[in-house]
Amino acid sequence: MVSRRMEFWIWNGNLVIRMLLLLMLLLPYDELCGMPSINCSIKDDPFPIPHNFYQPGNISIGGITNQVAFFNDPVSFIQHPIHMTLDEPMSYTKNYQHILALAFAVKKLNKDPNLIPNITLGFYILNSYNLGRMTFKATLSLLSGQRKLVPNFSCDYLQKTIAVIGGLLSETSANSATILNIYKTPQLTHGTLSLAKGDREKFPSLYQMVPSEAYQYRGIVHLLHHFRWTWIGLLAMDDDYGNQFLQTIVPILTENSICSAFTFRLPKATYMEEMVEQMTVKLAERYPDLMDRKTNVFYLYGQPPVMMCLRLIFCLSSFTSLPPLSKVWIITSHWDFGSFAFQDFLDAGSFHGTLSFTVHSNQPPGFQEFLQTIRPFWAEADGFIQPFWEQAFSCSLKHKLEKICTGEEKLESLPGTFFEMHMTGYSYNIYNAVYAAAHALHNINIHGSKQRRLAGGGRLDVQNIQPWQLHRFLQRTLFNNSAGESVRFDKNRELVTVFDLANWLIFSNGSFARLKVGKLDPFAPSDNQLTLNDDQIVWHRGFKQGLPVSVCNDQCQPGYSKTKREGEKFCCYDCIPCPGGMISEQKGKYMDSCVNCPEELHANVDHNKCIRKILNYLSHKEPLGIVLALLATSFFLITVIVFTIFVQYQDTPIVKANNRSLTYILLVSLQLCFLCSLLFIGQPGKVTCVLRQTAFGVIFCVAISSVLAKTITVVLAFMATKPGSSMRKWVDKRIANAFIVFCTFIQASICSVWLSTSPPFPERDMHSLNGKIILKCNEGSATMFYCVLGYMGFLATISFTVAFLARKLPDSFNETKFITFSMLVFCSVWLSFVPAYLSTKGKAMVAMEIFSILASSAGLLGCIFCPKCYIIILKPELNNREQLIKRNNKRM
Predict the structure, then answer these.
(1) Which residues are 564's β-sheet partners?
(2) What is the pLDDT of residues 334-363, one digit of tens each?
(3) Domain boundaries of the chain, sorted by first residue
(4) CA–CA dist 741, 274 (Å, integer)
């Protein structure tokens, strides 16, 4: 232990020198001269801290509180400050419960035979008066002993301070930590502590009974998002803590799409009168910002004195021409709604409906009964109760006022602004801090007993424990308190606990109610950290329509998106309609921009919802599909009838003319052409996609080849009638049939290559038609598809050319004139088909192809076979060889 002490003093030499200089300022010279003596002959401190509470014990727990303050006038430099008289002390009456919570915890521990047995725990509580120099002096007094100011020296009759609890304000805690860190004395702060980045490493002896402020910032973001508040005002004290707050919270709000409408810096002054004066002036300057109707939510960061000043200022503004504020106040856990005695008559209605993240609390068994026993002289050493009692009950214990305290006043009769019977969050932290120190001592006692049994001698003894030895066990503290809740520290020496979301209700008689309407669990998953009971929240009376709205402008309605306004913050925007195919809709919050619907869905007319796209294909059930199917069937039946007629009159001259077998092949191929068009009707499948174009290409090739063969046969027949013509050997049915087979083989070969390389397949086209999914057959290879069409066009062109040249041959044996008309129809249809096919989408494209197949097939059927059927059925007398020859001779 000696070596550690030596190392300690070497590393902290500069701080020790500073503390000695501080002592020289605080103590008379003659007392400093007696410091080296260790025989306890040192005189008492001539300027002791008057407000203190001392209870002796073997081991003592120190406490630094902010229960009493002096509101004196600013220094005038007319007389020496030491001779200036202070005003009567003003008591933060609600803070008196903090003192009672520590006394109650110590009392319970001393009666508990299981924790630190045979050890009497004491305490020494000193007031800091919210002043830095008094905080330093209180801290040094705790390290020196009662009424002695000699740090690092301990006399036999002085109790040892093993840990210090305090303070409530960040500045008080930081000032105490500066000294306690030198002696490595554990400090457990019961208030929210604002530390700059990296400062926690400078105070390794500091333990925080409240989670980090970063968790509260996260909870604020969740709260603002929950109510869709994106335009808020920020209020903070104009000091280092306020600067740190703004530097931290503004980027967090920006990252979460929340803007600050304004930033109001509350002036900081040393004296209350000066603070009120400055704040009143600045408040009047910035009141238009506060009254902005768009900004209905204020986020306030400040210590309890700031809240009391704000309450005073807002109450004073009610006597002026300034209109009252009807806003939602969101306040951090620093705040507690308390009053001084002189504030009892002031209206605090501006804070009605305030939301605050409060330190979680519970009610330890016996605490309320303990409070009911408190009377003005319940403990002789309690130096805090007199100002508390006199100001809380507006009476005098020293017969200075007309109203004398009876001593029988009861704490439960006080309004909540002065004192609460239920243990507050800060008192609960003090209670847990005392028990944390006690459990650490208990673990030391157990550890020391084990060492004595194993080594025959003890190195750790609670009676002789040094404060720095407590850290090892305090960091590992884990226990359940009497309220049944777990108490432990995380790796940052911060208590692992939750925040309560409180809703403050202020009544006209000055009383208030604090309703728990939610909970912030920083250790829960991000989506479930904040739980709220919206129905239980009571808003300020100025919001008569229910939930307040705090946005720069109204939210864009579904179907619209945000567009930034030049020169303004991103929370201010205009709303523009979503472009075609995009939507914006409400899913827990309004979307900032329009988004595309999934491929299977499309935007509705209002652009606020994605609806399922309609399947687009030529169905058998729709009118167009039915009409085309009926046409195909009708033409098929007509072709069957024609074929039947030709079979029935197969021996007549008109049927036998120009190769009867070619006529039958042509009629059969036309029947198949009409039936082929039915493959294009209905939902495309793998089989139908393969058969559609290939069957159509091959069958049509057979039909055109038959027409071409008939045309060539006519020409060869007339050429063969000339005497000595060598063309007679070509006028043969087998040659015509072989010609059809050859032409069809070429087309079949093209289709085979197509199917083997890149066959057609069914496809869902999501984008060609808005709001529709086109079910179609992808041709696979467009080149092969146009090769099939091109080959048919080639055959049709040859047939048309040959028929056109042979159109003046005799009619009796000549049908080239009819073939010419049929090929003209055929070519016209398919020449118009290509541009029409390329310019249409969906089922219209399929209908165009079906129409082209039916029209071209019907053109062949009508132009070639209708004249012959007319003669066969209506003019049978013309269907004989003599009449045909006779007619032919007349024309010749």
Answers:
(1) 573
(2) 766 654 444 444 456 778 888 988 888 889
(3) 21-35+45-68+87-212+382-488, 213-364+497-536, 560-612, 623-891
(4) 113
